[in-house]
């Protein structure tokens, strides 16, 4: 069961850093749908891309799986023999609920849900790797190393799907897209207080990169093809093929 997100609806004297704790896990489906424009489209398309890139007897990784939305989308779409999905998150509350969601749906493709730091996961024999709004929560200095680990563990022709909040080098454009995102949240029922307090809680935790920064990393690491496949305001998703 999912509840309405009211975490920031009352005034908070001292706002701490945002964490993916039990309170957030309980309301996460409502929070993500009302906060991230295009989220449902991204989840659906992740499954479609997995169907295109997954290969028999290979691994599919969902790094930062939260409640398993991307994992379940992938599992609905792939039919290959010998595939396994490995879903990883460092939040115990998220992992516990993810396991319940995975177990609620019968499917041939097995899923291992693991509580771990994604930076310490061994990526091996991978045809698809998903980082769905995950990289932005890592310290910037750790991002290149994780992407390189993913590249090394991808099989030739394998794909990385990376969804992120973006920052834009043009200040006017960046401000406009942030304002449009806040309009999106207002349209979905968030108050000015909720928007302000959530922004204060997350600003030290979520540090977005520009699209150009992502592309430069992909190029330097060695991906053969990469680009943005979806964008709505300052949120979007990219692919990178080995």
From TrEMBL:
Keywords: Methyltransferase, S-adenosyl-L-methionine, Transferase
GO biological processes: methylation; tRNA wobble uridine modification
Pfam families: Methyltransf_25
Sections of the chain in a coiled coil: none
InterPro entries, A to Z: CmoA (IPR005271), Methyltransf_25 (IPR041698), SAM-dependent_MTases_sf (IPR029063)
Catalytic activity: prephenate + S-adenosyl-L-methionine = carboxy-S-adenosyl-L-methionine + 3-phenylpyruvate + H2O
Presence of the UniProt keyword Lyase in the record: no
Stretches assigned to the Methyltransferase domain: 60-158
Residues that bind S-adenosyl-L-methionine: 39, 64-66, 89-90, 117-118, 132, 199
EC number from the UniProt entry: 2.1.3.-
Origin: domain of life: Bacteria
Keyword hit for ATP-binding: no
Any one GO MF annotation of this record: carboxyl- or carbamoyltransferase activity
The protein's role, per its UniProt record: Catalyzes the conversion of S-adenosyl-L-methionine (SAM) to carboxy-S-adenosyl-L-methionine (Cx-SAM).
Membership in a protein family: Belongs to the class I-like SAM-binding methyltransferase superfamily. Cx-SAM synthase family.
Subunit note: Homodimer.
Name the record gives this protein: Carboxy-S-adenosyl-L-methionine synthase
Origin species: Vibrio aerogenes CECT 7868
């Amino acid at each position: 069961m999912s509840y309405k997100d009211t975490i920031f609806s009352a005034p908070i004297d001292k706002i701490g850093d945002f964490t993916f704790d039990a309170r957030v896990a309980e309301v996460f489906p409502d929070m993500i749908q009302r906060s991230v424009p295009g989220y449902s489209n991204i989840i659906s398309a992740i499954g479609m891309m997995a169907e295109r890139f997954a290969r028999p007897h290979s691994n599919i990784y969902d790094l930062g799986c939260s409640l398993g939305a991307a994992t379940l989308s992938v599992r609905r779409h792939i039919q290959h023999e010998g595939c396994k999905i490995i879903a990883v998150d460092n939040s115990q509350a998220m992992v516990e609920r993810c396991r319940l969601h995975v177990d609620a749906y019968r499917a041939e493709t097995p899923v291992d849900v693991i509580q771990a730091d994604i930076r310490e996961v061994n990526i091996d024999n991978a045809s698809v790797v998903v980082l769905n709004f995950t990289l932005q929560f890592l310290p910037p200095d750790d991002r290149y190393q994780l992407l390189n680990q993913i590249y090394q563990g991808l099989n030739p022709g394998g794909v990385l799907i990376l969804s992120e909040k973006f920052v834009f080098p043009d200040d006017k454009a960046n401000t406009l897209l942030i304002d449009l995102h806040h309009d999106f949240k207002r349209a979905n029922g968030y108050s000015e207080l909720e928007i302000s307090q959530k922004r204060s809680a997350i600003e030290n935790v979520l540090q977005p990169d520009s699209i150009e920064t992502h592309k430069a990393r992909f190029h330097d690491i060695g991906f053969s093809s990469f680009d943005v496949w979806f964008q709505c305001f300052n949120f979007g998703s990219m692919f990178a093929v080995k």
